Amino acid sequence: MTEATESQAVGVPKDARPIKLACRNVWKLFGSNAADFIRQRDGKASPADIAAAGLVGAVRAVDLEIRQGEIFIIMGLSGSGKSTLVRCMSRLVEPTHGKVEFEGKDLLKISDAALIELRRHRMGMVFQNFALLPHLNVLDNIAFPLSIQGQDRPTREKRAQEVIELVGLRGREHFYPRELSGGQQQRVGIARSLATKPEIWFLDEPFSALDPLIRREMQDELMRLQTMLHKTIVFITHDFDEAIRLADRIAIMKDGEVIQIGTPEELVVNPATDYVAEFTRDVDRAKVISARSLMRACDGSDHGGTVAPDAKIASFSASIVSAGKPFAVVNGTGKPIGEVTPQAVIDLLAGIEHKRAGA
Amino acid sequence: MTVTASASAARPPVQRWLAIWALALIAVLVVFLLQDRMPWAVNYPTEAVVPVADWISALMRWVKSNFSWLTRSITAVLGVPLDFALNLLAKNFKIGHGAEAFALPRLSWVGVCAAAYLAGRAAGGWKLGVLVGGCFAYIALFGQWTSAMLTLGLISIAVPFCIVTGLFVGIWAWRKPWAERLIISPALDLMQTIPTFAYLIPMLLLFGNSPVSAMIATAIFATPPMVRATMLGLARVPSEIDDFSEMAGCTARQKLWRVLLPSARPTLMVGVNQVIMLALNMVIIASMIGAGGLGYDVLLALRALKVGEAMEAGLAIVALAIALDRLSQAIAHNHAQGQIYQAASPDFWRRYPNLTLAVAILAATTLLSLSVPAFAAVPKAITFTTAPLWKAAVSWVTINFFDTIEAFRVALILNVLNPVRAFCEGFPWLGAVFLLGLAGYQLSGLRLAFLVAALTAFCAITGLWEKTMATVYLCGLSAFISCLIGIPIGLMASRSDRFEKTVTPIIDTLQVLPSFCFIIPVVMLFRVGDVTAMIATVAFAVVPAIRYTNHGIRQVPPALIEAAKVSGCTPRQTFFRVQLPLALPEIMLGVNQTILMALAMIIICAMVGTRDLGQEVFIALSKADSGRGIVAGLAIAFIGIVADRLFSAWTAKARARLG
Predict the structure, then answer these.
(1) B201, CA 20 to 30 Å: which among A300, B4, B291, B510?
(2) Model ipTM?
(3) Rounded distance, CA A210 to CA A207, Å?
(4) Residues of A with Cβ-Cβ distance to B341 under 8 angstroms
(5) ABC transporter domain spans which residues (chain A) (predicted)?
């Protein structure tokens, strides 16, 4: 599939986008006879069962669907199984049980040759510690996946040069990894993973090894690239702020289980467990919550302005408070579907609404 | 974690072990005192000796008579590149026969020295160039050129062979964990503890007294570090790089050759350095089976007790060793640093200026040597010889200090060597098997206990008990003295940067010297005998004691030392209560290495007239008695393995306690 056809997906409403990658009851257990253990139990086991059998459950009963063109973030603390899960999705780690479907086809059943072909052309991956090859310069590192496919030197170097331009590394083609800063090294890692024009892009904590300022810069860079390329992105992080900044949807993992999947707003407004609530507590809610979540039915009073349902509170909080009147929430056709009051916005900013969310 | 905890809880606690040891020692003492009643427990009865040596001899004879076609063809095939290298470096190419014979000259010594300089410059700047070039020039000017080039020629063929073999065996071990566990690791352990001499005997038998058999012995001896380096390097490649290669869609072959091995290159280069140094060491020793070269010069001189000549050839070995070591280390270091950007140039000579220049100089000087004899061989007029000087020095020392040295020697023999020897040789073999097995059980468990007891028993039932204990006595004493000297030096080095700076180059140099070289100066002063063997061994084996102690103390995390200071420790308390306990596993590792090195050296000291297993191998070598030599070699290896396993288990225990 080319990048041009992917870009069409953006016009389609989110929910109608096709499912690119799905996990169906995926398990990864470590220990002897793990496969028999989970098969005998029909893909169901409690943590107590697993512990009793002397196994370690790295990934447990994960069900999720990733839609084409979305940024899907898997977020969890270290040891929560997020890295193992993403490696199950790309079959770097063989899941113990379950299905991983790539465009509806079970990845676990395809042959080794087909898997290699799939990885060569349709998957890309970026690593936390860059995983650059120390003996190759920037150009050769980026061209490496192409040379593995057997492309000749002029073709692959032309393509490498394109992605070098894309990530802003021009002039560094002949430097070796150790001569580059961390941020530059990760740009090489990103360029290398994009060189093959993958459809699905795995980013395994790509910015965690970078300094905070560089990290922010790279996040912006990622968003810039995504507006151009519209990849399906699976992004791993342990940083909830990063997740909120980038995600279309977030899956929160704990002890190998996905405990909630939702948009940043859904997680903030409706945390499934105290654990999720704990993460969302310090989030700047006005930047996450949209007018839709805060609106109530119109009670006939004057409106000081209009906002779209998806507008974040932060984008109009100053104007609504200074106007002192409710704003109408209007849908695409200009019809009001509710209103947001200044008091609701002030409560939100002051954190008063928090009690409801925690309940 | 829980498993080890419960296992150690199930074992008897420390006090009980004290009691057990006391009982065991008393039991052995009783056996010793009752030796008139049961002599079989003290000295292994001769009629019960298992004739393993005869079996091996018979097997070797069978192999020799049935596989001579194979050994001959191997000799023929390997002889081709070897002859080429020897002709190129040392001899001349002879084409044709009789009157029409025409000789192509070997590489000119001037050119080789210049090439050595350029190689050094390319790898580590002009300073290294001067050092490497200087070492070669030294060899030339001191009249050792042809011998040194014979040695170098053998190395230059053996080393690539070792590297390729080691690489493939290492890859195999990495791919197949069962092969590593069951075949390769035990084989490597055995290969590295079998004394160098013991390798020579089967080679001599199968391939005759020739450079080819020396080369094969060298290749076998020097391969293990390459295997280990390959395994280590591949295991150390970061898992992300492994994952990356999978995600890029590499096939298994692409992954290995294009991702993993290049990424492991720094470790591999360290392996190459070790291979070169071991090959040099072995080529010197293999002079006994026809390697020729510098080792043969030393051997001849030592046999004739011409200390001056031996010293000269020994110093040439030192020069060669230093040149090869520093050069290969610099190259390894460059690889570890990773490459840096250099403007690519289309011209070969621009990209590789040093290589081009070296080839050009070699070609030009070699051509010149056709007409100018001074380029072909080092002219007599400009060579020095220091042999008379050394001889004079030795005579002067002997004349002036004979009494002192003799008094020292006799005192050492009477007060230290002989009592220890008597104790060791009188030690009941059954008691030794029992006590070592007990130690193995305490340190690790039943498996180690059985291994240790079985290996010790092997030494007894093959009828070598007395010689084994003679080896143990000399080796143990030397290792003990090495530690007595080395550990304090290491401690001092760890506490003073300035002292460390002076010690490091000395021990670096000591470490690269082939073991032969240590014997020469000592033999000049103390003549042959156990004292000479002991002193040479101490000088050889002291290095790891110093190095590991220093490193152990220095690697204690600074945060812990700061924590100790903040808690109000005096420097003394910090040292004794924080640094030393934490460094103990590392120091024990050093002691382990010291013992193994002492063992290797003691065996070579058979040349200066010890009466132990080494002598047994040495005699077997001169009689080409393969069974006798191999059994004695195995006994030596088993001593090493027993010591190594017990110490490793002890170190592992200490490590586990520190967490």
Answers:
(1) B510
(2) 0.84
(3) 5
(4) 137, 174-176, 179
(5) 38-280
